[in-house]
Amino acid sequence: MTKLIEKARNNASAFEKRSEYCDRDMAKSDLTMATELDPLRTYPYKYRAAVLMDVHKEAEAIAELSRAIDFKPDIQLLHLRAAFYDSMGDYVSTVRDCEAALCLDSSNGDMLELCNKARERIIEEK
Questions:
Q1: 2-60: per-residue pLDDT in tens?
Q2: N- to C-terminal Cα distance for the chain?
Q3: Relative orientation angle of helices 58-71 and 75-88, to the nearest 10 degrees
Q4: Nearest to residue 85, comparing CAs of 123, 37, 49, 40?
Q5: Backbone angles phi, psi at 10, to 5 degrees
Q6: Are 96 and 62 in contact (CB under 8 A)?
């Protein structure tokens, strides 16, 4: 894989692919390079956010997803950020992201379910 990277020096997707098969530190480096080569690819942002959540850096994970959502408000990014907010107990933000995602696809069952559960939790907290 490294030999392919050397041949494809300016290929963001090659760095993304290698990040899937190497240790965490090397993956972070590859994802950073992928973002430098093509800052509009969303995969590196999602993967970095997932890694940050794994090490309990929730605010940093949310910020990483927010950077991607700023230039591409896509349903997968919004769903992931909504799920992160939900896991942190921030149900108002969960509902906000769910509603934004539902504007893109109102028939998304998973998003509807997450949104309804978050709304119920908001009511329970009052």
A1: 565 555 566 888 888 888 888 878 888 889 989 999 999 999 999 999 989 989 999 99
A2: 54
A3: 160
A4: 49
A5: -105, 35
A6: no
